[in-house]
Amino acid sequence: MAEVAKLRRTVFQRFRCFPSWLQRIIARTLGCKVRFQKILGCGSFNLVIEALLLDHQEDEQPRRVAIRIGLPGELRVPLPLAISGYAATLFLARLDLPAVVAGPVYVARPPLPYLPRGGSHFAVMGVAEGVPAYNVWSKDATLAWKKAVLADLAMVTLQLYRHPLDSLGSMEVSSSDGSPCVGRMLQGAVSLAMERGIEVGELSPGPYSSWTEYARNQIEGFVLLYGDDPKHGKSIRANAKLVLDWLVNKFQDPVENDNKFQDLRKSDNKFQALGKNDIKFQDLGKNDNKFYLVHPEFGLPQVLLDPDSGHVTSILDWDGAKTATIHSLAAGFYMPDYYWYDDPDEDEMCEFFKQQLIQGGAPELAEHLTTQESPQLIFEQQRLGNNVGGVDKVQAALRSFCTRLQGLGMIDPAEQVVCSIIQPWSKSSRSSSSASSAASSGSSSSREEAKAQEEDSGSSTESSEDASSSSEGEEGTSSEEEKEGGECVA
Hints:
This protein has helices at 2-15, 19-30, 79-94, 133-136, 143-161, 189-195, 211-226, 233-251, 262-267, 326-330, 346-359, 363-369, 375-381, 391-407, 429-457, 460-484; strands at residues 33-42, 46-54, 63-70, 102-107, 121-125, 131-132, 171-173, 180-182, 292-294, 303-305, 312-315, 322-324, 418-420, 488-489. It is an alpha+beta fold. It has a domain at 2-127: Phosphorylase Kinase, domain 1 (2-Layer Sandwich). The chain is globular. This is Aminoglycoside phosphotransferase domain-containing protein. Residues 427-490 are annotated as: Disordered.
């Protein structure tokens, strides 16, 4: 009775209807009878209900499934991201990996309560067994138990490594045969610009054939989106130029371009700051054309375990899954990286995980596990590979990325990384007049001192020259400060 009451209360709170109404809508969409059993989970994005599916033939055994329904509101998972999760689980099912395989994503017609027609969706999947890792992974767990968890996660990493994909983008379902494939980067800057109706010219939303093509499109997409922002536009353009120049010098041959992006930059003054030297992007990085499926948000809540043996039973939440480079895959499923307490066994666990990768025939994966200096990994850590959440976060992410590259010696330390801009109009007229009066008073006082020295020592020519040079130096400094416009450089 407690489960029924919880089900009734949760459905009514989220959809303002009773469970029977929701059952009928889903039953009509699936073409079979649906009986809700209990709530399996409810977060910010989805409501997951355990249900029985009954065919119209009475002799058929009911199927036990989990039905995941997107919640009303802006926080719910958009339909394209849900489809990418479905495509990812189809891919994982072929590899026999411990993930909950989602069934087809259905768009409910008529719409689910309080959701627009065509914008509501739900997915049917297997019921995930196990206990969330955050409930059992702790300092009290034995090292042998943790190694059992890591052995399974290393196996997941190895299987994904053995099945690379040919391009970089978000997962999607092929319209021809329904198989999983790689499509455009759903949360990328270029995709967002296209959704806002911004002309992107030769920029591409993906899929991308190389990491450098992907990084360049992301950075130039951010310039399109936020290059005119009055607060951070100048900072974003300046730091974007640093990144694009670095991409040219680090990864490509500086040969003459076929004018692929020249027309775009001529037609849009936001690109004038990005430099005049166009290049042909020819990738020189090792393994730059191999990509691997990675989890979009891996962590302790996404892993279900057998609490006794430590074996991984399921990995959840593949919505928004995409492909990435080997640098992201290497540590993508290394559990201690996502635990918020220092673990006394961390060094031994890291060595164990590396040995699992080496014994599995992937020593290059083990090499990248503890290497935090790859620009590809830093790029993803700063969330520059997707819509990082508005102009403020884009500016901060670009600044942090440039600063990290400077710390690693990849960008010349003499280059200025712009961290913030204060608008000239934010200065009050009183402060401006005070600054000018202070400069003029300083200048006049210097002249008076010079005249006094001239009378005392008789060296009028030398004193007047020193005074005039001092005055000019102060006035030059003042004008330079005003011209700087409040830029803060790192």
